[in-house]
Amino acid sequence: MDHRRCLKSHTPMDGLPLNDHAQYICVFRHPIDAHFSYRKHLRNMQMHFFNLWYPEEDTEGVTFRRFLDGGPEGFDGDAMPLAHILRHYSAALALADRPNVALFHYADMCRDLPGTFERVAALLGASYGADVMARLVEAAGFDHMKANAARYAPGGGTGFMKSDADFFDSGTSGKWRGGLSEDEIAKYNAVIEAHLGPEERAWLEFGTPQ
């Protein structure tokens, strides 16, 4: 293949080969938002053994404890524990000064999707007219993707998920607020504060300061 192509990976940057001809786009989201989104994602898959790890009713808070306690490799119950997210983040930060490594945040995309497209286009050296960019931004919007879920959801149209449309739940953040106890929040804060400084934490949770 002699044309541009893309590859999506869940591998941290320190596990990927670095090539000056490649552009690395690292995307992050508030860890707790990512966790609760992941719960819904797995319950929507046709793999019922995930119900043991992510039960619909979890009155004892086992799932969130696994999220906090799991190791970075994700083999001990939670496939995406907090330690795994922090490993991704630290590996990306270590290479963020390279011209071909860029960090993006979901909150920034939600606040300014056109600006995100402009940034990606600049990184890739791509140039499009205003009308084409407007169509691309519209296609990447939540409503359009949910309405065309069979095209955009992972494995869409194949029965991989119970509902392709449900993969696009709401696109919002912070719905977990009020759903965790003070003790759970305190334990999350302790883990985060042990690994990140205030500025690093603020960006990982909320994106670029406004």
In which range does the helix fraction lie? Answer: 40-55%
Distance between the termini: 42 Å
- Enumerate the strands of the largest sheet in spatial order, edge to edge or round the barrel: 1-2
Give the topology string: H per helix, E per strand: EHHHHEHHHHHHH
Overall pLDDT level = 91
Q: Which fold does the CATH topology of one domain refer to?
A: Rossmann fold
Question: CATH class of one domain, anyone?
Answer: Alpha Beta
Q: How many helices in DSSP terms?
A: 11
Any descriptors?
single chain; 210 residues; mainly alpha; Rossmann fold; two-stranded parallel ribbon; 2 strands
Q: How would you summarize this macromolecular structure in one to three sentences?
A:
The protein is mainly α.
Commentary on this structure:
The chain is mostly helical and 210 residues long. It has a domain at 22-127 and 180-206: P-loop containing nucleotide triphosphate hydrolases (Rossmann fold, 3-Layer(aba) Sandwich). Helix content is 47%, strand content 5%. The protein contains 11 helices and 2 strands, in the order E-H-H-H-H-E-H-H-H-H-H-H-H. It has helices at residues 31-43, 50-53, 62-69, 82-93, 106-111, 113-124, 130-139, 142-147, 149-152, 182-195, 198-206; strands at residues 24-28, 101-105. It has a two-stranded parallel ribbon with strand order 1-2. Helix 6 crosses helix 7 (130-139). The N and C termini lie far apart (42 Å). The mean pLDDT is 91. This is Aryl sulfotransferase. It comes from Sulfitobacter noctilucicola. InterPro entries: P-loop_NTPase, Sulfotransferase_dom. Belongs to the sulfotransferase 1 family. Keywords: Transferase.
